[in-house]
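Worked example
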Amino acid sequence: MANDYKDTLFLPKTDFPMRANLSQREPEFLKFWYDIDVYGELKKKNKDKPSFILHDGPPYANASIHIGTATNKILKDFVVKYKWQRGYFSPYVPGYDTHGLPIELKVLKEQSLNKDDIDPVELREKCAAYARSFADIQTGQFKRLGVIGDWDHPYMTLVPAYEATQIEGFAEMVDKGLVYKGRKAIYWCTDCQTALAAAEIEYADETSPSIFVAYKYTDAAKVFPELAGKDVEVIIWTTTPWTLPASMAVAVHPRYDYGFYQVGDKIYLIAQGLKAEVERATQLEFGEPILSCKGEKLENTLAQHPFYDRVTPFVLADYVTLDSGTGCVHTAPGHGTEDYETGVRYGLEIYNPVDETGHYYKETPIFGGMSLAEGEKKVFELLGESKRLLGRLKITHSYPHCWRCKKPVIFRATDQWFVSVADFRDEALKCIDEVKWVPDWGKDRITNMVRDRSDWCISRQRTWGVPIPAFYCEDCGEVILTGDRVRRVADKIREHGSNCWWTMTPEELIGDLAVCPKCGHTHLRKDSDIMDVWFDSGTSHSAVLDNWEDLSWPADMYLEGSDQHRGWFQTSLLNSVATRGTAPYRTVLTHGFIMGPDGQKMSKSLGNVMKPENIIDKNGADILRLWVASSDYRGDVRISEEIFRNLIESYRRIRNTARFLLANLAGFDPAKDMLPHDELAPVDQYIMLKLERLRTRVTTGFDEYEFHQPMTLIHQFCDNELSSFYIDVSKDKLYADAKEAKSRRSIRTVMWQVLRAVTQMMSSVLSFTAEEIWQKMREMDPALPQSVLLADWPCSLAEGIDPAVEEEWDMLMLARQGVLRGLESARGKGVIGHPLDADVQIKLSDYYKPLAGRICDETWENVLIVSSCRVVDEISGAEIVYDDETTGLRIGVNRSSAEKCPRCWKRRPEVAEKGLCDRCRDVLNAQ
């Protein structure tokens, strides 16, 4: 009988697919966006609105994107799309970092070239082509993620206009006296054969020898007459034996107590606080000191180098500690930052016997031509022969490594170009205070890094990069670096590109300024170093924001990984403060790293690397975007197949909810069928109030960059308010009421507004799915914007609805849960099979008494999906009585004796006589 009435019901109808098939469908929507030039349309729509500029930190163009790069770009896309929706003019210009050692090394390796045998310009042209090719590859990959931006006009650091702006900024620093050339001990990678800045250093555990070496204390008797005629030695300590050929002094702490200890016919000098440790390491027994003094008394007295004819004076240094060693530290100014500063203070020779490849210079006595490893063995051999090696241990400690090749670096004194950060450090620290840091711990992180920084080594000994536009007089040796000459070079670079530095003479580059200001001669030589690539990218605030028509300076936001506090965040800040006196950004947002399922760092060796393209091919870009949105980016984020499986279930809930809404909106014309809010049924008004609450919370989530909140809230709304309640309780009226009944129009009005608002709110995250839904909505309302990405953020969604409705219905929802538990008890005891079999009585507890008289019995029937329900003073004649502990409600349940309506399945008394319930009979009679 029921089948006879199926065609009279208004059942769901849609061709919106249940299976997303994202990996196949998403490219269609990508094509659609570019066919309609959605980015250009966004600019037109918000042309005269307030701007919000997120400045893109340029990824390095030497490989395909990885999961960290994808995460970063997706987070940026969330911000930019949301800002467009909120009515901002929010252009996004992507960028690429295209100079530097990694690209140069890749080209040399892949094309089997030797950098010493190839013309610099030819090598540079090959590097440029390589960088451009990977910029193109990455552009395709970023677009596939659904990231919208000005992909036809990205910025690249190799473009002449960019390079010229970089050089002009450098000229500003030169004019202010911030740039100097000096011989300092800097980080040096012998594998990459170049200097490194602090931002290019990573720390990892390294096992090193810890040795205790005896230096003869030749001046002992001069300071301590009682030691005359004694064989006195100072025991120094070091973890870098290869630096002993460069040992120029012995550092002691001025305020520590030092003791002279008699051991047989020798006397040894060490810090008294390290006596026990030295005994363990050397197997010597010291007893009590025969003499004691403060370290300051030893200053400028002389000891003897252990294998060279060289005196090594005692010097004072506060960095000497009692944590380990002997309290007497061998000092090599050519191989350590602190050692260098001590050497300058005492006028020591800044001696560096090691070349760029990690070998001793050929003229180095004893060690000439040896590698550092060979030199270390030779040191042990010499010390062993002279019996000056008193102890030798192994220690594991944190040691600097090159960020590119991951190998340990050395400190090496070389002539380098520096920017004196100390001259504007206080100004930079003040600017940090004026920036909003998200999360706020980012402020402390960058503050500590900048506070500890005195200079910035900006020169690199490679070919592929922007040249340092300095000259040298071949006649008098003068170093020539002036702002006016630098600007002349910038003009040539803007016209010809930076290759002109290698192809033009000094006269062609700087014209009448190609003369030595000291001696007046014109025989000039160009500097051979290039700039640190961090100087390149650190210039982007000026090269891009000042020169792109759509952009403006400063940026509203920089958004990168947490490693950029020592990288792009910091170098951009230093560059901007040095040239403009203020920060280049208003807000800095930081995200963590991507980790494997067990919290390990992702690596090929562990087999836990997940490539973005593989995730997209299997699940679609929207699932990857949902993962980014579901993760708390403020810390390190885990990724795994299991996480994706769970996310897919969440995605299905959202998609299937949208599908149900679309199916029940078949034939809906918003222009004709929408009801004003004050005419909606109370339950429909309740859902609109909940939708407005969702909108408010999602808006707050995006405004505060809490990206893990919006999609969680939307999923919960789909699951709790819609699937678990509203969709279920609406089905009866949707399917069985008259087609144009006000009850159906009320529900469909709400469903349309829910679908539209939720689709708009999730479009910055689930961009492809939102577009798919939107295009189905446009079939019902062609007046909607052409793309969901062109739709504004939803405004207030509950205007005209009394807020008291929400409070009343929240109470009803709590009561409903109690009654549902009673129905489940009745079903479990066999009294009913389906809720529509039930005849329910409810006795309200005191808390729920306000519902009496306000919520009618028909509303109770609808929200419980039962055939009959009455609110009573006392339960009577019930087959089962259930007392709900949570709500205090008493629920009586009988199996209804009425027959079931074959059309709507509700049990009504009139069905026995009329064959249908009155409602269904009236609907059919009106058709």
The chain has a mean pLDDT of 93. The CA atoms of residues 335 and 411 lie 5 Å apart. The first helix runs from residue 22 to 35.
